[in-house]
Specification:
This protein is of the alpha/beta class. Helices cover 33% and strands 27% of the residues. It has a single domain, classed as Rossmann fold. Helix 4 crosses helix 5 and helix 4 crosses helix 10. The mean pLDDT is 94. Bound molecules: S-adenosylmethionine (SAM). S-adenosylmethionine binds next to helix 3.
């Protein structure tokens, strides 16, 4: 059954569908969801959109160095990537650490898409373990764990609420006379949302995006009982609520409007880095933009290179190109080391 037929069935039976469910089904339906559908290139030049690890391994080298700055003496490392897609970031990080004579003892990939799991297994010679939930991760406290992700959190569905006269209503999708439209539904959690985001003074028509799916996975990460790890995550997002919709639809590298088409569309949201920072505040997380991530962590042999190709790649992965299309890429990282007192 097509995505559109699935959405229509839900609307027919309960009257509407939330934006979060709409995006989750569109992205992750087991059969026709964008991330699971076979035979359709998803990420890369021939896919629907491109990401930094697909542009160049320089991005992966910068991330690996960000880790090595915090754990310069690491000799035995376990890798844990969240949402690897085609898996290039992990392959490049593995090769870079190997080139520095660091042992990578174990590679675990948290991946929900069967399409990517198959693709990685077919393509890569590396032995990897796949998990679908963070709590299935087998912790090995003998080694330092490097946990990283790129454009992972933006693929999570999020609810959208609109503020009106002191209350939040949820935005939902419905259909009448073959036309889709957005409607508002009152919700019991309006007061909870106002409390949660109490530092904001909302005005009528402000939009709030809130994802309990992200909150759940952040809790799972926080509960990981690893003694020695570095966590770094990069995504497009914001550190102050934009108070408007950040939902973005991409197909064949072009932006679409909601309902333009339903199949082979990637849906993503801007990631709330303020929420991520508050969540991990006890670990003193640092937020920088992707430009600084590259400039602070890429070795000088690349940063100072006069080679035109390398210059172009650095401009690209520094976010110049992404900023042009209105996206700001941010990086949050922190170190946890319970082996030092
Ligand atoms: C936008 S893609 C990014 C892929 C890759 N990191 C890159 O930069 O090219 C998002 C990735 O996260 C995965 N993903 C999203 N939500 C997930 C979840 N809840 N559990 C596991 N994987 C998830 C998707 O299947 C996909 O591999």
């Amino acid at each position: 059954m097509s995505i559109q037929a699935k959405i229509d069935t839900i609307i027919k039976s309960v009257g509407s569908i939330s934006i979060q469910d709409f995006v989750e089904i569109s992205n992750f339906d087991k059969v026709s969801g964008f991330y699971n559908k076979p035979n359709i290139e998803k990420i890369g030049k021939d896919g629907q959109f491109i990401t930094s690890p697909e542009i160049s391994s320089l991005f992966s080298i910068a991330l690996a160095n960000q880790f090595l700055k915090e754990f310069p003496k690491a000799k035995n490392v376990n890798l844990l990537e969240l949402g690897p897609g085609n898996g290039l970031l992990t392959i490049d990080i593995y090769n870079y650490l190997k080139s520095k004579n660091i042992n990578v003892n174990n590679i675990t990939l948290l991946e929900r898409s069967d399409y990517f799991k198959e693709k990685i297994s077919e393509r890569s010679k590396l032995k990897v373990n796949f998990i679908e939930n963070i709590y299935d991760y087998e912790i090995d406290n003998k080694n330092t764990i490097f946990i990283y992700s790129n454009e992972f959190f933006d693929a999570f569905g999020s609810k959208q609420f609109v503020f009106n006269n002191g209350n939040f209503n949820e935005i939902k999708i419905s259909k009448e006379n073959s036309k889709y439209f957005l409607m508002q539904d009152s919700v019991a959690i309006s007061g909870e949302l106002i409390d949660h985001y109490s530092k904001y003074k909302f005005k009528n028509n402000d939009i709030l995006e809130h994802s309990n799916l992200i909150l759940n996975i952040l809790s799972d990460i926080k509960n990981l009982n690893c003694k020695k790890y570095f966590f770094t995550t990069t995504d497009y997002g914001y550190t102050k609520l934009p108070l408007k919709s950040t939902l973005r639809l991409l197909s064949s590298h072009k932006k679409l409007h909601l309902f333009d088409k339903f199949e082979n569309v990637d849906y993503s949201f801007g990631v709330n880095f303020e929420l991520l920072r508050d969540f991990f505040i006890s670990k003193n997380p640092q937020i920088i933009n992707q430009k600084n991530l590259i400039n602070n962590n890429l070795p000088n042999e690349y940063l100072k290179s006069r080679n035109k190709n390398i210059r172009e790649i650095i401009d690209f992965i520094s976010g110049e190109k992404f900023n042009n299309i209105g996206q700001v890429f941010l990086n949050l990282s922190f170190k946890n080391d319970e082996t030092i007192s």
